[in-house]
Amino acid sequence: MTEVPFKISVPEELITRLKQKLAATRFPDELEDAEWDYGVPLPAMRRLVARWKDGYDWRRHEAALNEDLPQFTRDIEVDGHGALNVHYVHKKSEVDGAIPLLFVHGWPGSFIEVRKVLPLLVQGPANHPAFHVVAVGLPGYGFSEAPKKKGFSIDQFAEVGHKLMLALGYNEYVTQGGDWGYMITCHIAALYGQKHAKAWHTNLPIATPPTLTTKPLAYLSSLFSKSLTINEQEGVRRGKWYQDKSSGYFKLQTTQPQTLGYSLADSPAGMLAWIYEKLVQWSDAYPWEDDEVLTWISIYWFSRAGPAASVRIYCEHTRANLSIFTTTPPTNILTGISYFPRELVGYPRKWLRSSNLIFEAEHDSGGHFAAYEKPQELVDDLRKMFGKGSRAFGVVSGKTGFVQ
Q: What are the catalytic residues (predicted)?
């Protein structure tokens, strides 16, 4: 499990081949005034493909990623799956007492999602806690090796994150995750909570409806009170929009990921459209710049295993008889939640309450990619959750986030 420093260095022939494929792109037709009603508009795709082919400088953005993100790889043994070479970002704070934090991304994200929060989290002024940050590149994403056997589901992703933290010398740590990062850190809490994982924070809170046996007070309250706050109403509306208008990808990726994989692996324009749609529609009017989008997409195109590997998590999770939309946060460790109004789903807050939910924050804007869209807000929430006066203060033995 030796750590090896890593720099992104895409072979020149892959860049050349990408440009050749982009030059051969065959665009579909489009209905008049379609705009976003049928998916990514044709003018946007023509612009992005042209930019990716002729104006976008991957080498410049590759160098910037290497400059901003200290990266490494190491082999991690996964029960039943052998050793996988895992890519990760690791930056230690100058504060000796900083809190070890495992940051876990989801789909269609990657390690790039930690880019904006990383320099903020490691800062250690006297008035808030600092963190040692580890952002794991999930197996099959970015520059991490992909699993080769069936059955690599959430428990295995959780095992990778946990063993990475132990290998880095963090016997106790806290976690943060959204999207699949929510599910993975949820399982880390269930599998390694209390002894190793001491607290967790999420920006994608998911809950099951309360019952008389699981949450009797919330259940009785739901019978007699139908009123929801404005934010809760928006969450319900957003969830309905997602199910009706934006969840088709989910069914395909949970059932036939290999079939989809041929298109993702062979057509850069097709992969661009598949992911760009989510970046735009799942964020909260975030002003995506073209080069910003293309850097995000290029990480998928140049990924070690290819873009098809990243979608298999949906299928494996479903075949393990697990549901992403009916998971209640575990109560065995301290929990914090940040609510962003344009997240994909929203629930009545009472459904999420538990004895170990110690921190909640409501935000006026922000969507699914909170760490990227609203880095300062997310960092502020983590600082408050683990700051002085919180129940989570000092939850990691000897690591309060402040100078000892």
A: 179, 314, 368
